[in-house]
Design a protein that fits this description.
With 180 residues, the chain is mainly β. Helix content is 3%, strand content 40%. The chain is globular.
């Protein structure tokens, strides 16, 4: 005889919030991941709500980044929120959280002539289940890759110094099957 005993899920509790390092994009990249906020939760019963997460876009505006938007989990077809070009902040609210990692991914279309370090996108406010929370590693920055990958979007580059151009296979030459 086999006896099966069910257990109740542990009620959800706040774990931590931190920013993650993003992969370095190249000049002119569209939908470039520029910041990731991870809100980690423990337990799956009685899910909690992310009441508000607000991101400061002021440094991106100074660098003329366009099309700033936020996705949940992965970059997909429909963003959670989109900032108007020049907006000072971008906010997300009223998200039911999952057990484990809850990633909010900030993406933007990078200027073709931007080089150096992507400006930080600090989290200026984070409220989970009515309680204000702090964010570890807030305001991570990422270096732009020193070359250009040719994609399917039309982008005009101004070249003053020497720069390498690669097709979608990059430096390794692994061209995707349908690249044309």
């Amino acid at each position: 005889t086999i006896t099966v005993t069910s257990m109740s899920l542990k009620d959800m509790e706040y774990g931590s919030a931190f920013t993650e390092t993003v992969a370095a994009p190249w000049r002119g990249k569209r939908n470039a991941e520029i910041a990731i906020l991870n809100v980690n939760m423990d337990g799956g019963g009685n899910p909690l709500t992310l009441n508000n997460a607000t991101f400061d876009l002021s440094q991106l505006n100074a660098a003329e980044f366009k099309g700033v938007r936020v996705y949940r989990g992965k970059v997909g077809a429909t963003p959670l929120a989109t900032a108007k070009d020049g907006a000072a902040t971008l906010s997300v609210s009223d998200l039911v959280l999952n057990s484990g990692d809850n990633r909010l991914i900030i993406v933007a279309d990078l200027p073709a002539d931007f080089t150096g370090t992507i400006p930080a996108v600090p989290v200026t406010a984070l409220t989970v289940d009515g309680t204000s929370r702090s964010v570890a590693n807030n305001a991570e920055t990422t270096e732009i890759l020193p070359y250009v990958l040719i994609g399917t979007d039309h982008v005009t580059y101004t070249v003053g110094d020497a720069i390498d151009f690669y097709d979608d296979g990059g430096k390794d030459g692994k061209i995707s099957e349908n690249f044309s």
